[in-house]
UniProtKB/TrEMBL annotation:
<dbReference type="GO" id="GO:0008076">
    <property type="term" value="C:voltage-gated potassium channel complex"/>
</dbReference>
<dbReference type="GO" id="GO:0005249">
    <property type="term" value="F:voltage-gated potassium channel activity"/>
</dbReference>
<keyword id="KW-0813">Transport</keyword>
<dbReference type="InterPro" id="IPR003970">
    <property type="entry name" value="K_chnl_volt-dep_Kv8.1"/>
</dbReference>
<feature type="domain" description="Ion transport">
    <location>
        <begin position="12"/>
        <end position="237"/>
    </location>
</feature>
<dbReference type="InterPro" id="IPR003968">
    <property type="entry name" value="K_chnl_volt-dep_Kv"/>
</dbReference>
<feature type="transmembrane region" description="Helical">
    <location>
        <begin position="76"/>
        <end position="94"/>
    </location>
</feature>
<dbReference type="Pfam" id="PF00520">
    <property type="entry name" value="Ion_trans"/>
</dbReference>
<keyword id="KW-0631">Potassium channel</keyword>
<keyword id="KW-0633">Potassium transport</keyword>
<dbReference type="InterPro" id="IPR027359">
    <property type="entry name" value="Volt_channel_dom_sf"/>
</dbReference>
<keyword id="KW-0851">Voltage-gated channel</keyword>
<keyword id="KW-1003">Cell membrane</keyword>
<keyword id="KW-1133">Transmembrane helix</keyword>
<feature type="transmembrane region" description="Helical">
    <location>
        <begin position="46"/>
        <end position="64"/>
    </location>
</feature>
<feature type="transmembrane region" description="Helical">
    <location>
        <begin position="209"/>
        <end position="229"/>
    </location>
</feature>
<keyword id="KW-0406">Ion transport</keyword>
Length: 302
């Protein structure tokens, strides 16, 4: 019920409640930072306590139900769950221990508490337990670290070259915004990533030509590794979909083998579920092959 949201009605209900608490907690975190006259702060604090109680109970139940607790604590999803609830208890502990301290120490404690409260944003990652897309994104980043490193290397080289050239071209212009090479780094970063804030811009014709080359290079540099990362993401997504279809197929097969032949209606329903899961898996396999052929990549996942 805790680990397989689609295994039963109770598991589906529990998964829906878990997602609802995550969304409510994120919305509550946003509302706490806004001053609203019609929404009292004690109500938001009480809602935060309710969400923390739910997350703590969910984590404790998962920990109690697992057989290998060491493997459970090493899982990335469970580490995220733990990091989502620990800041709350650490904040309570720090505030209770520093109740009678001086103003300077209270200010330092307040900064620590603010940093700990920022970690509540990690609760958004809890949705990855129920989202195939988020899990695919995590798998893609884990498998494409070489491509991501290559992308960062290309960007770093381009930023270093174009920022230096642009600074020496624009430094003699009166009132220029290129006051230093670090300022030129910021301009080159926003230009190569095609953001273009406009807070720093060239004034000379030569500087505009260099800016054009910087933007064009940024488009080319971003396009090269992202195509590889996109292919890997598609493969990861379809693989997870196939695994989900295979799990549904296995669950339906277990129900078919355990069910007696006395109730023919249940048998027919279970056979329909089994057949539907097989068709889902075959359809996903065909989509994955078509995606791989269209991108020109190798069938590296299977």
């Amino acid at each position: 019920m805790l680990e397989k949201p689609r295994s039963s009605v109770a598991a589906r209900t529990f998964g829906t409640l878990s997602m609802a608490f995550v969304v409510v907690s994120i919305a509550n975190m946003a509302l706490i930072s806004v001053e609203l006259s019609w929404l009292a702060p004690p109500l938001l604090d009480a809602l935060e306590y309710v969400c923390i109680v739910w997350f703590t109970a969910e984590f404790a139940l998962r920990l109690l139900c697992t057989r290998d607790r060491c493997r459970f604590l090493r899982s990335v999803a469970n580490i995220i769950d733990l990091l989502a609830i620990l800041p709350f208890y650490i904040t309570l502990l720090v505030e209770s221990m520093c109740g009678g301290e001086s103003s300077q120490e209270l200010e330092n404690v307040g900064r620590i508490v603010q940093v700990l409260r920022l970690l509540r944003a990690l609760r958004m990652l809890k949705l990855g337990r129920h989202s195939t897309g988020l899990r695919s994104l995590g798998m893609t980043i884990a498998q494409c670290y070489e491509e991501v490193g290559l992308l960062l290397l290309f960007l770093s080289v381009g930023i270093s070259i174009f920022s230096t050239v642009e600074y020496f071209v624009e430094q003699g212009v009166p009132g220029t915004t290129f006051t230093s090479v670090p300022c030129a780094w910021w301009w080159a970063t926003t230009s190569m990533t095609t953001v273009g804030y406009g807070d720093i811009r060239p004034d000379t014709t030569t500087g505009k030509v260099v800016a054009f080359m910087c933007i064009l290079s940024g488009i080319l540099v971003l396009a090269l590794p992202i195509a590889i990362i996109n292919d890997r993401f598609s493969a990861c997504y379809f693989t997870l979909k196939i695994k989900e279809a295979a799990l549904r197929q296995r669950e339906a097969l277990k129900k078919l083998t355990k069910n007696t032949s006395t109730d023919s209606n249940i048998n027919v329903n279970l056979r329909d579920i089994y057949a539907r899961s097989i068709m889902d898996m075959l359809r996903l396999r065909s989509r994955e092959r078509a995606s791989t052929r269209s991108s020109g990549g190798d069938d590296f996942w299977f």
